[in-house]
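chain below, 168 aa
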Amino acid sequence: MFQVGEYVVYGSKGVCKIVDIAQLDIAGADRERFYYVMEKHGDAGGRIYAPTDNPKVVMRRVITKEDARQLIREMPQIELLLVPDDKQREAAYKEALKSGDYRSWVSVVKTLHVRQRERLAQGKKVTALDERYMRAAENELYNELSLTLEVPKDEMEAYIREQLQVSK
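prediction:
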């Protein structure tokens, strides 16, 4: 069980801070169950309520500093998503994001960077679908790494590039 004050990755909501664990007196909530009360990292306006015993939603602790550094070192070896047709591509992107797995997020980002370069080299525009999933995957990945490594989110891409140059 997670504790109040911990940061977690909660399904497709991303990084959240657990601000309370309580039984809820809200319409529609099972008053006998305990819920995590969470705030999305970087957005203190909304609250997320999740049953503490819900096995259907992926919920995990945020990556450790050591694991984050290791992930960055391993990024060049992380495989691209190999999806042969456009219809399956969106499903693969969606599944990778929903998984809550930061390696899958890296795979999506790498795949979309390659697709972007290829399309631009062919004189084509980047598709709206690719742009949307690129932003979503980068947002999840950079948000989590930013929190753990204490690097501003808007500087995370440059930080990763710098770290990869240093490790060569």
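The beta strands are 7-10, 14-22, 35-40, 43-51, 59-61. The two ends are 39 Å apart (CA to CA).
thats it, cya
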